[in-house]
Amino acid sequence: MAIIASNFKTNHTRKSTASFINNVNDYLNSSAIKSEVYVFPSSTSFDSFNTVSNLTLGAQNAYATAKGSFTGEIGTEQLDEFAIKTILIGHSERRHVLGESQEETAKKFTFYSELGYKIIYCIGEPLEVKQQGIEQTLEYVYEQFVGIDTNYENLILAYEPVWAIGTGVTASNTDITSIHSVIKSKISKPLLYGGSVKVANVAEICALDGVDGALIGTASWKVEDFKQIIENTKDL
Ligand code: PGA
Fold this sequence. Notes:
The chain is globular and about 45 Å long. Strands 3-2-1-8-7-6-5-4 form an 8-stranded parallel beta sheet. The chain is of the alpha/beta class. Helix content is 35%, strand content 15%. The protein has one domain (3-233): TIM Barrel (Alpha-Beta Barrel). The longest helix has 16 residues, at 14-29.
């Protein structure tokens, strides 16, 4: 059973998010598709959507707090309002664009795991590390597990090489399987691949050994494409 997740990033409005979610929900409701589907909209588009059990809304980010004085952030008090119990942690844009350190990332992980949230935890190396070879790449990825309880029961991992995110350059099947097999041998959790997954390659990628699904940005933002992605992976 594939796990398929859409990360909206800084895209869609309240109106277009609602239309997207209702459309995907109708599609899942009228099909026998059992895939686990996640949508991570912008926090301004959270709402109390009535969805089928295999469609879950999550937060792209939140601070490690219930409430308080953290300008620009949200905490669990805001997530609770919409019964959101799923969160992305460690996304490369949080790490590399917004400058979140491993220490902050781990703190967030501990906070949300103690509350029982489903966590999609992202790891992945930048291009200059990939170019140094597999040993350095794995070393870099291991560092992203420092402070993270990899036995946490509600954990899904996502391997997303930074050089493949939003670039149109998907990692090769060999790149994906070699990293996935090592991570899988150490941590027995579902492991998604992310980084320029497209309608045309999602089935092939999700069928690879050690790949349990996909975390998709760009190619998931048009609802017809996202439904096609779900359709293409429904039998895996
Ligand atoms: P992309 O983003 O599909 O646009 O490469 C993936 C992600 O950031 O999760």
